[in-house]
Amino acid sequence: MLPHFYYTPEILKYDFGSQHPLRPERLRRAIELISRYDVPILDPGPGSISDLFRVHGEEYVYLVMATSDRLSKGDFSADDAERGHLFSYGFGSGDNPPFAGMYDASLAYCSASAQAAKVVRDGAPLAFGIGGGLHHALKDRASGFCIFDDPAIACHILLEKFERVAYVDIDVHHGDGVQWIFYNDPRVLTCSIHEEGRTLFPGTGGVEETGADFTSFNVPIQARTTGDVWLHAFKETIPKALEAFQPGAVVLQMGTDVHLLDPLAHLRCLQQDWLAAVKIIGDLGLPLVALGGGGYNLMTVPRMWVSGCLTLGGVPFEDELPADLGEQYRMPSYSDHGPAEPSFGKPHADRVIDWLTTQHIPHLRR
Description:
This protein is of the alpha/beta class. It contains 12 helices and 8 strands. It is globular. The two termini are 37 Å apart.
């Protein structure tokens, strides 16, 4: 049985509109699929503004709250909001259009992640908040579809018990929000393997972004890199950084957009490449908070999240999905079948591995 799986339908109200790539349907499908495995789905409760204040400035939080309320009441339109000072806080018609109810919906996904972190802080070995993983939000600014930074909140909660916490991000986009929030905090190691910023938002995540204590650890991967090379780079860097840092607990952000069918990025991983990385983190045996993240293909996100959760929880499952859902979602199996693509991107990956192994990891040994 999968333990401590937190979710509330309120998270589905986190919706930037029908034309936006971050569609609530991807989460709805994942919940429908995981429910077939008799997973007890726990309500995390209403959430607490005090958890937001762990990593976000009060002025920013109250701005989101007030804007959300005014839009809900019809005091002004989203267009009016964009023309005002909200633009300086990251809101606009592109990535982060303001919407009615955005505060409560954002608090809902933070509530699930925070509750997962709190039960791990209090002794549980594993907990889940796959409706979260919104890793781009900064202290005082929305960014990259993210209003509040729930992975950073989870890390902060774990610090109440553990002297050192590691954050591992396997989303195709650099986990910049979490990195910058903890950039000068030697208690938190932020690890991110991602498509390099030269070709993908947010344009950050180079190996030189180390923080004063080398606790920012980035593995930038070349566009079009295949899954075998991506997994090789992961194995040769992030587990070794964790071994050197010796964290007491881990927050894992399980973005699925490294998949070759994802429309917003350029890596070419298969589901089984991604799942192998998830398993490596689970096999460390450390207390673990597992969150969701990016992923924008409705055929890949549900099966990847569910296979990741079941694997971390040690719940056996067949490769074939339930027949009705497989037909409905056009995803008959968890694994990707067919010939693997020829390896691509290894020279670039090897240069990154060599730099991190010789110039970064030695600074993490304690």
